[in-house]
Amino acid sequence: MFSFEDARAKVIEVIAARAGALAKIRVSETIDISRDPSEALGRILAEDILADRNYPPFNRSIRDGFALRAADAATPGARLRLIGESRAGVAFNGVVGELECVRILTGAPVPRGANAVLMHEHTRVEGDFVIPEQAAHAGQHYVLAGAEARVGEVVVPRGTRLSYAELAMAAEVGRARFQVSRRPRVAILSTGDELISLGDKPGPFQIRNSNNISLAAQVALAGGEPILAGNARDEISELRARIERALEAEVLIMSGGVSAGRYDLVEKVLQDLGAQIFFDAVAIRPGKPVVFGWCCGKPVFALPGNPVSTMVTFELFVVPALEILSGHAPDPLPFYKAKLAHPVAEKGTVAHFLPARIAWPSGETGGDPKIEVLLWEGSGDIGAVVRANCFLVIHTSRLQLEAGEWVDVFPRRGKL
Ligand code: AMP
Ligand code: MG
User: Fold this and answer.
1) Looking at the CA of 289, which ligand is closest?
2) How far apart are CA 152 and CA 204, in angstroms?
3) 59-112: pLDDT as tens digits
C-alpha cells in the first residue's frame, strides 16, 4: 500500500507525463479584468505580463514636503527660495537650483535639479522661504524611475495563480485583457443507494448528497470547473452508464463505493471499462480506500464516500492533478509547523489527518503556534471539519506524540 506521499507523487508523475495527451484542455482563453476582476481570481496566467514603461515612470515622491538639493539642507542657516509646486499628476516644469526648493506632494514627480525630499514636518516656512530643520541625504523620500520595474520586464510570470496583487500589477501596466489557462472540466459523480438530492425529503435512512457539493467547491478552489454528474445507484449497469457519460469531461471524480463491501462496485466497473489502476488504497485515515486510475483516456479519482475522507483525499491527491492540468506546477504539500497542545496516541500502520485548530498567540505576547485536535466522531463528522482550520498530520513513523512537540499541520484551504 502506498504512503500518502508516494500516492501523491504517483499522481503528479502520471498526470505530468500525460498532460500533453490532455493538451486540448490546456488551451488558454482571454479574460478582461476591466469588466469583472473577480472572474480572474484563482486563474492561472497563460502568458507573461510585461511592464509597458518604467515603474515608477518618473522619480516619485513618497512624502509631502519640499524637493531640494540635499547639500542645501545641510548648510547651517540656509533659507531656500520656494519657486513652485509639484503635485500628483501636475509636475513642476522648471529646475531646482542652488538654495531653491519646490513644494512637493506624495505621488508627485521630483523636479529636475532636486535630489531629496525633506518632509514638511522637518521644515519651517517663512513667506516665500523654507528653512530646513533637518539634514537630508541624496535620494531621500522618493523612488527612482524604473526602481520597481523596468520597461519590458516580466512583472507577473506565466503560470502564476492570480490574486489581488497580480491583478493590481496587470492593471498598473495597462493589461486589461490577457490569457489564462482554461479551467479543466471536472465531472463529479457520487454513488450510493442511500443518497438523495438536496431538494428531496429524506426517508428515515436516507442521506443527503453532500459530497457532490463539497467536491464541486473543492474543484473550484483548485482552479477546475465542476460539472455535477449526479448520483449512481450501487448497481453495475447504472454505474457503468453514468461513468461513461461523466467521462465526457476531462477529469472524473467519484465518491463512495470503493471499500470492500458487497455494494462497493466502483473499482470493478472501472476495470470492466478497461481502466488502468495506479493505486486503490493509501495508508491514511481517514481515506484509506482511494482509487486513482486512467479510464477511456481520462484521469479518474474514486474517493471514499465518508464525507471527511472525501475531503481529505481530494486535498491530498486531486489538488496536484488539477494544478498541473490548469497550467500551474503542483505545490509541495503545504505543511505548517505548530506545537502540539496535548499528547496524541494513535494505533495501526497508517498516517492520520485529524481535524484540528491551530492558533497563533497575539503579536504582542509572542510565542509559538499551538495546535489542538478537535473531538470528532470519525470520518462521517462534517461538523468537525467545519470547526477545524487544519488537520494534524500524524506520520506512521511517530504515532505517539507528546505535548509540546512540533508537528506537521495540513491547512484547510481558504481557512488558513
Ligand atoms: P461508501 O464509501 O460508499 O461505503 O460510503 C461510506 C459512508 O459515506 C456511508 O455512510 C455513506 O452513506 C456516506 N456517503 C457516501 N457517499 C456520500 C455522499 N455523496 N454524501 C454524503 N455521504 C455519503
Ligand atoms: Mg456507498
Assistant:
1) 1
2) 65
3) 999 999 999 999 999 888 899 999 999 999 999 999 999 999 999 999 999 999
Q: Whose CA is nearest to atom 9 of ligand 1?
A: 306
Which protein residues are within 6 Å of ligand 1, measured from CB?
190, 192, 194-195, 207, 209-212, 255-257, 259, 261, 304-307, 380
Q: Could you give the CA distance from residue 113 to residue 101 in angstroms, rounded to a whole number? A: 9
Count Cβ atoms within 10 A of the Cβ of residue 387 and give its class: 0-12 exposed, 13-18 middle, 19 or more buried: middle
Give per-residue pLDDT as tens, 135-186. 999 999 999 999 999 999 999 999 999 999 999 999 999 999 999 999 999 9
Distance from C-alpha of 91 to C-alpha of 61, rounded to nearest angstrom: 11
CA 395–ligand 1 middle distance (angstroms): 26
Does the pTM surpass 0.70? The reply is yes
The answer to whether the beta carbons of residues 368 and 338 sit under 8 Å apart is yes
How does 121-153 read in b/e, with b if 16+ C-beta sit within 10 Å? eebeeeeeebebeeebeeebbbbebbebbeeee
Nearest residue to 284 via CA among 214, 210, 379: 379
Ligand 1 centroid, distance to 307 Cα (angstroms):
7
Amino acid at residue number 377: E
Give 176-243 as a 3 state SS string: CEEEEECCCEEEEEEECCCEECCCCCCCCCCEECCHHHHHHHHHHHCCCEEEEEEEECCCHHHHHHHH
